[in-house]
Amino acid sequence: MRRSMKLGIAVKPESLRRVTRLLTYAARRGVDLSVPAKQAAHYMHESVIRNFEEEGRPQKWKPWTPKYAAWRRRIGKPRPILFLAARVSTPRSRTRKQRVYAGLLKRSITVRGEQVGPFITLLSTSTPYAAAHQFGTERLPARPFFVFQEEDVPQIEMIFKAHIDRVLGEGGAYER
Fold first, then answer.
1. How far is CA 175 from the centre of its chain?
2. Is the Cβ–Cβ distance between 80 and 55 less than 8 Å?
3. In a domain, 98, yes or no
4. Which of the four pLDDT bands, split at 50, 70 and 90, describes residue 120?
5. Structural domain for 57, as ranges
6. Is residue 122 part of a domain?
7. In angstroms, how far is the first alpha carbon of the chain from the final one?
């Protein structure tokens, strides 16, 4: 059974305070945030996909170990870091194991954009090893891919602020 995983997103404290104030303002006035949450989710999805394409932002992910990198070159699969090899089940009659270089983690990022009570879920993934890559393990360095970039905060804030102003009809009533 696949379970959806919700991972936290790193944001600088000052940016988090701005967004939190905005969302608190909306909650006190009973504004439904599902519409801007969906818009923000699509925006964040693009940002997270860029994290994969650039192999980490703003800080690059740790490279593979030299031994693993050499093995990848030797088998002719020098793909980006999180295009990992995954074993595929094969019938017992076959003795050779197949490997797939699929980028499943990247493709598994799902746009949610849902408001459930005081929480807003923008993105999720059902890939079982997502947390291991996001936070790292004893043997695997953290390669955080679910990361808000500071450059994303003003756009996300603008999406929510425009919706709140439109719904409340106050045209700029929200003060930072």
1. 29
2. yes
3. no
4. confident
5. 13-61+108-168
6. yes
7. 44
